[in-house]
Amino acid sequence: MSTRLCGMQVVVVNRGEVAVRVLRTARERGWRTLAMYTAEEQRALHVRLADEAVELPGVGAAAYLDVAAVVAAARKAGAGALVHPGYGFLSESAELAQACAAADLVFVGPSAEALGVFGDKTAARAAAERAGVPVIPATRRGAEIAEVEKLLSEHPDGVMVKAAAGGGGRGMRAVLDAASLLDAVERCRAEVLAGFGDDGVYAEALITGARHIEVQIVADGRAATAVGDRDCSVQRRQQKLVEVAPAPELSAALRERLHSWAVRVAE
Fold it and tell me: Which end of the chain is more exposed for a tag (fewer CB within 10 A), N or C?
């Protein structure tokens, strides 16, 4: 362990199993920890495992989404503390990453700039194209119906109308014919506006019989490396039910290609 990391204070912006796993790992490394909790969580396991704990204003999950309150609580750990969001909640929040930087805290995750890019699927596609990584044919964000119809005519298997923002399988509709296109676009817009406050949608050519394979990377701001992959093809309503790692039945050549593309986009 480096001298710099000895005695490091880790602030965990999460609860439940997510927080417990981060706290236990930090303890194994000899780092001090600060947990956050709401009034109803005073006796929760993650609170008892931490060296210190700070109560957040608000109730339930909403308390963990208040960037200003989270940063105010994290400041109690002192300048240079690591702010670990776990997953879910603010883990993909460019606003939190920016606020941590302004408060002299270290956000454990991508930069605010990177999160801003990858929080928008159309911006992420553009980044992949700049990196020379192939992407599925698609329309631009906010495309007119006529543009989506043109894409559908060029890809008779169908198109997938998708929300530009958000994730978790929300705001996605497969369209197989022009008659159902307008309804699908309107439904996607309404769903993502309610869920993410952004009604931007676009369409991609629909690929049937495909496998959903993800590549995990780690990066330190200078370089990235692929550390594995997983097959997430078992889904219901575009939401993953089972993940298998490493992804089975991938040839060595295809695995190497996928890993190199992921690293290229990240860097």
Answer: N
As a whole number of angstroms, the distance between CA 115 and CA 120 comes to 9
DSSP three-state, residue 215: strand
- Contacts of residue 264, Cβ cutoff 8 Å, sequence gap at least 6: 131, 132, 133
Cβ-Cβ contacts under 8 Å for 220 (sequence gap 6 or more): none
The separation between CA 73 and the C-alpha centre of its own chain, rounded to angstroms, equals 23
Prediction pTM value: 0.77
Query: Phi, psi (5° rounding) for residue 63?
Result: -65, -35
Give the E-state strand segments of 13-151 in sequence order: 32-37, 52-55, 82-84, 106-107
Distance CA 47, CA 20 (A): 9
Report CA torsion sign: 118, 121, 127, 132. positive
pLDDT in tens, 101-124: 999 999 999 899 988 888 889 999
For residue 229, which amino acid is it?
D
One-letter amino acid for residue 98 of the chain: Q
d(CA 86, CA 124): 22
> Would you call 227 helix, strand, or coil by DSSP?
strand
Place of tokens 């920890």: 33
